[in-house]
Amino acid sequence: IAASPNSFITAIPFGARPKFYAENPRANLLLAEFLKGFDFSDKGTVTAFYPVESKEEKKGRSREDGHSRKSAFNKPWPLVITGISDNFMKFLLWQQCFAIPSRVVWNFVSFNPKALPWVIAAFQGNIVRDNAPLIAEALACLKSAAWCDIPLQNLVKRITQAQGNFGNLVELTVRMTQSWHLLYIETKNLNNNKGLVFMLMGKPITDNLNFHQALTAHIQRLRVCLLNMDKIIGCDWCKNQNHPSHACPFPGVDSAWYGLT
């Protein structure tokens, strides 16, 4: 797959986790049957298979892991599809989501090793509310904290110079924050009360996963007045990062639901 990512696509079921595959041991055959049922002139020789867990992943697991929330939704999530024609692949990726009533929802995604998340950090606090001037002020505080952080400047310089881009430390850091924006999100906590969050979003400045993770981790450690860092938990069901699992809106949608949007 790494050598030829364009020859494969993935199908991620809603609620993908080890339990889903334990309860649906023939999920790959169900997916292949679904795909072969399309009235499409040239589908190719469609084959769906389970990804193989690496030796490192197996070695890193302990018996206690089976009882943790994290391991309950452990990766790998997708089924892998191969032998598919280019046109059929484009069709599935364009439609992206297909719901089979009372059975499963398939979400089709391409392999793109350079695609990294835009979500940087989440913040909570008494000042978090849907107020445009306040959001602008909070974003200004975040950018100011980033611009003045010397270790962050050095990390940005290291990343950008590896790409052949050179410049003043501060200018490079300011350029990194040009795509930053704060997204106001209303979700719910476990007590069904409102949970208000500012989510910091920004375009990744590198396609190197290690550099990207180091950069976002450093930004998450910045000390920002009036804002408290909130852990990005995300949803185990639909894999979205803008709400927790207990607040996922999709299971509550009626029978007219045609899949994720």
UniProtKB/TrEMBL annotation:
Organism this protein belongs to: Armillaria gallica (Bulbous honey fungus)
Protein name in the entry: Uncharacterized protein
